[in-house]
Specification:
With about 450 residues, the chain is α/β, with parallel strands linked by helices. The chain has two domains: about 5-210, MetI-like (MetI-like fold, Orthogonal Bundle), CATH 1.10.3720; about 235-435, Rossmann fold, CATH 3.40.50.300. About 50% of the residues lie in helices and about 10% in strands. The chain has helices at about 5-35, 45-55, 60-70, 85-120, 125-135, 140-155, 155-165, 175-185, 185-210, 275-280, 310-315, 315-320, 325-335, 350-360, 380-395, 405-410, 430-435, and strands spanning about 235-245, 245-255, 260-265, 295-300, 365-370, 400-405, 415-420, 425. A six-stranded mixed beta sheet has the order 4-5-6-3-7-8, sandwiched between helices. Strand 5, helix 15 and strand 6 (about 400-405) form a beta-alpha-beta unit. Helix 1 (about 5-35) runs antiparallel to helix 6 and helix 3 packs parallel to helix 7. The radius of gyration is 29 Å and the shape is elongated.
């Protein structure tokens, strides 16, 4: 026989305990996972092993620990929380916290490895960066939270030890199933078991629907005028170099940095062009201020940071209050005909390349670093991009463009640096003349 009142009370208590524990573990575990993923000290490798080991933490061990903590002789005994819902929430939070922490850590690790350079050159605050990282790592974070909730809702040992399975107070669905089975009331035990299964599947399905990017709103495009540009006022030259594991990747190279100029870095693949730009952007060596009206780096591989075309084009204005959006201008300038709600992940390679360039130009840079920004694009799009670069140059922006396109270099260069095997070579040398003549482009 099924007792409807008892079932209803067990469901409500289950929702309260497992839901609250999941929220608490998420609020602590997700930011902690993001923070840990950004650290490279050896101690964090040991911490990760410990967190992973705690995935299989026995519930009864957690129950004993929390019981000792909340008992009259315990550290928190004065709070008189033993055999209350609060005690059950504490126990479940301890139990699922390692799952959400470790799962989020892994998700942010995967995101960080791919997006770290882009994040480091956005100029975003720590809070803004965390929001963007959560958006990119949402799938892994979501799975960690769901796994944590699943363990909390199915847990018996810890909650029965610290909650006491008191009817109408601390009795949840799992402890009710254990009790009814021991009493031989299989009808109610089976009914509760079926409800628990349906409830778990429903929560997972709803969470899966909510976390889908297609369900999110995207900002509309606005700003038909180009962003206001400010002339470069930094150092007139920099000498950069790069070494890794004792091997010199880029020999010391002097780069002229003057307002209203385009310096082209020319060389075959593997010559050191990307290393030079990374050093100028502060990703290697000394720090560089990046962001709105500062240094902006456009890497060779286009990586979207948000869920829609509109969010990408409006990213600069969303991060910096003083930045006036020009999303409509760049959408028209670079023939981005997709709706603002369109996902950037389904764009073609060329469309994505133009979208990310538009996003970065929205920061109105003083120093613009471009790595093969027109590679694999059609002539009409190349012309539109080059026209925009010339507009930036004429406004006093300092541009450093890495390319292996000799014709483009000759069209745009106010100064030229030719690299070969990580070192600058003279334009009058045999290799340089061969490259400029178009005999090879690597």
């Amino acid at each position: 026989m099924v007792d409807g009142g008892a079932v209803r009370e067990a469901i409500l208590t289950t929702l309260l305990t497992s839901g609250t524990a999941t929220v608490l573990a998420t609020l602590i575990g997700v930011p902690l996972g993001a923070w840990c993923s950004s650290k490279t000290a050896p101690i964090f490798d040991k911490i990760r092993v410990m967190v992973t080991a705690l995935y299989g933490l026995p519930p009864v061990v957690v129950g004993v620990f929390v019981y000792a903590l909340l008992s009259k002789s315990g550290v928190l005994g004065a709070l008189d929380l033993l055999f209350t819902v609060e005690a059950m929430i504490i126990a479940q939070t301890f139990l699922i916290f390692p799952l959400i922490w470790g799962g989020s850590w892994s998700a942010f690790d995967k995101t960080g490895q791919q997006y770290r350079d882009t994040f480091d050159t956005l100029g975003a605050t720590s809070k803004q960066r965390l929001v963007l990282e959560i958006g990119l790592a949402r799938s892994g974070v979501y799975h960690a939270i769901v796994i944590g909730f699943g363990r909390a809702i199915a847990e018996v040992g810890a909650v029965i030890m610290v909650g006491g399975n008191i009817a109408g107070k601390t009795r949840v669905m799992t402890t009710s199933i254990v009790l009814e089975t021991s009493k031989g009331n299989m009808d109610q035990a089976s009914f509760l078991g079926l409800l628990l299964l349906v409830f778990s599947l429903t929560i997972v399905a709803l969470a899966s629907f909510v976390q889908r990017p297609s369900g999110r709103r995207s900002p509309a495009l606005s700003g038909v005028k180009p962003p206001e540009l400010v002339a470069y006022d930094g150092p007139s030259e920099r000498t950069v170099s790069m070494s890794r594991e004792g091997r010199e990747i880029l020999k010391p190279t002097q780069i002229p940095l003057r307002p209203g100029t385009i310096t082209v870095v020319l060389g075959e693949s593997g010559a050191g062009k990307t290393s030079l730009l990374r050093a100028l952007a502060g990703l290697e060596g000394e720090d560089v201020l990046c962001g709105y009206q500062r240094c902006v780096y456009v890497p060779q591989k286009p990586l979207p940071l948000t869920h829609s075309v509109g969010s990408e084009l409006n990213l600069a204005s969303s991060l910096f209050e003083k930045c006036i959006t020009a999303s409509a201008y760049f959408s028209e300038k670079f023939s981005l005909e997709q709706e603002p709600e369109h996902s950037p992940h389904v764009l073609s390679g060329g469309e994505l390349q133009r979208l990310i360039l538009s996003r970065q130009l929205g920061f109105a840079p003083k120093l613009l670093l471009l790595d093969e920004c027109t590679a694999n694009l059609g002539s009409a799009h190349v012309k539109a991009i080059e026209t925009e670069l010339i507009r930036h140059r004429d406004a006093g922006v300092c541009i450093v463009l890495a390319t292996h396109n000799v014709l483009q270099a000759k069209r745009l260069a106010d100064a030229m640096i030719i690299l070969h095997d990580g070192a600058r070579i003279e334009e009058e040398g045999v290799l340089a003349r061969s490259l400029l003549a178009g005999e090879w482009s690597g």
